[in-house]
Amino acid sequence: MKAVITCAGKGTRLLPFTKELPKEMAPIFSLGKNGIEIKPLIQQIFENLFTIGVREFCFISGKTKRSLQDHFYPDQQQDIPPSLSNFYEMIINSQIAWINQLIPKGFGDAVLESKSFVNNDVFLVQAGDVVISSQIHSSINKLIELSKNDDIEAAFLVQTVTDPERHGIVTTKKDEDISLVTKVVEKPKDPETNIGIMPFYFFRSSIFDALGETTPGYGNEIQLTDAIQKLIESGKNVAAIKMDKETILDVGTPESYWNALNLSFKSFK
What structural domains does the chain harbor? Predict the structure, then answer.
């Protein structure tokens, strides 16, 4: 399966850190072969997806994020440290494409940029500033398993949230572990539910037609949530999968990054 990882956001909420470094390079704690390691969030995202079988990756980045691409270029030095050798081995055994989103126009527009990479294949989408801290990856594996059902056009992970202003909010037909979605709204002022979209998705190529018809919405940007709503309104089945008890690390804001550092460290104590 292919994976699209969006990294084109400006990261203004993490200034001044993001003046020179992308937020996707924010360091987190991770468990390595020799104990706790510190690695960039984007590396952890890549390693998680590789572990579950993804071998074709497309990173959507911007002109100020060259350090992301540099990080995925294996060093040619002798005696590579063990903490890097496994990462380099994954890179060598992957096909990696880089696409620049010249003008940031939103999450949906970033996904649309990957159309030529995806072609007509089923693919995963993950935001580059969020990762699931897990050794078993059960939630993502459920997403992949559901993608084998041809009756489901798209699906994403959800969980109960206390800050709906930061999420797409979902209404479902039933309250089940996997439910068909009747409505999605990006960051509503008056949310109908407290079920929030976590930025882990699978799509079929029909999402590109929906994105092509989507006009700027919240924040005057092309929202992926709005394109998903178009799929629903056209009669396509879209599913929400409740996340298992896995920890999400989010570096989108100073508060969420502080929480991510604490959670990632405590999970290995």
Answer: 1-128 (3.90.550.10), 135-245 (3.90.550.10)
Non-local (6+) Cβ contacts of 10 within 8 A are: 18, 62, 104
Q: How far apart are CA 12 and CA 231, in angstroms?
A: 31
Q: What's the gap between Cα 181 and its chain centre?
A: 20
Counting every residue, how long is the chain? 269
pLDDT range class, residue 268, cuts 50, 70, 90: low
83 Cβ contact list (under 8 Å, min separation 6): 32, 33, 34, 37, 39
| Bridge partners for 95 per DSSP | 56
Distance between CA 124 and CA 164 in Å, rounded?
24
Burial bucket for residue 178 (CB in 10 Å: 0-12, 13-18, 19+): middle
* Tokens linked to 25: 């390079």
> Which amino acid, 230?
K
Tell me the C-alpha distance between 19 and 104, whole Å: 16
The bridge status of strand 56-61 relative to strand 168-172 is unpaired
Question: Is-cis flag, bond preceding 16, omega within 30?
Answer: yes
Segment 179-228, tens digit of pLDDT: 999 999 999 988 889 999 999 999 999 999 999 999 998 888 999 999 99
Reduce the DSSP state of residue 154 to 3 states and report it: strand
C-beta neighbour count of 268 within 10 angstroms: 13
